[in-house]
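User: My instructor asked us to take a sequence, write out its structure as tokens, and then describe one feature of it. I'm not sure where to start. Here is the sequence I was given:
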Amino acid sequence: MPEFPILEYENLNSVIYGKLCDALIQGQFRPGDRLKIRDLAEQFGTSVTPIRDAILRLANDEAIIFRSPRDIRIPGMNESRYKEIRAIRLRLEGLAAETAAQLATSADIAALEGILRENEQAIANGDRLKGTELNQAFHFMLPKIAGLPLLNGILRRLWLQMGPHISDAYIQGGRTMIDHHYPVIDALKRHDSAAASMAIVDDILLGGKPILERLERENERQLRQG
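Assistant: Let's start with the prediction itself. The structure tokens for your sequence are:
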């Protein structure tokens, strides 16, 4: 019956799209990287069709620039776009932290502490990819703890655009990338919603400072070149 091949095809497309989303969010690509459909198909062990379909969806998400099948790139970001995304993240991730503080269990807190311990080791090892992956895992634990799946979906779209830039600045950022995760955990332990929200806001503002500084330098360079 025709329903089964169609269902299988649609499921494969969703799986490949999800894997590429994770790769972007976790910083496996960096701004300016060129993507090759055949290379990705080989990497994921599939045909080019689901890869192409996933890339078109990601282009619609504004996470990839698709100029032609031979010119697919991870986009850069200007200063104003970064600040817009940051402003949205401040509100939404602040809400996630605030709500998580009301609901966090000892198991939730232990999971966050485990992520943070691993992230400490990744920074000590200079492991950019592992550090970026763990940083993303920490942030996305908050809407999960808060029981806000719709918010999680909205944040994923923002992180599709931010993941490559966070990764690009992760080693340069050093301890600023994780230092403010500790006050988040402390606030969750006390079930202090206001403190949890303030801590994640500090983390986004201060942890994102290396990214903003890089974008500001690039903007100044472009202005000088006229």
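For the description part of your assignment, you could build on this observation: The beta strands are 34-35, 65-68, 71-73. Try explaining in your own words what that tells you about the chain.
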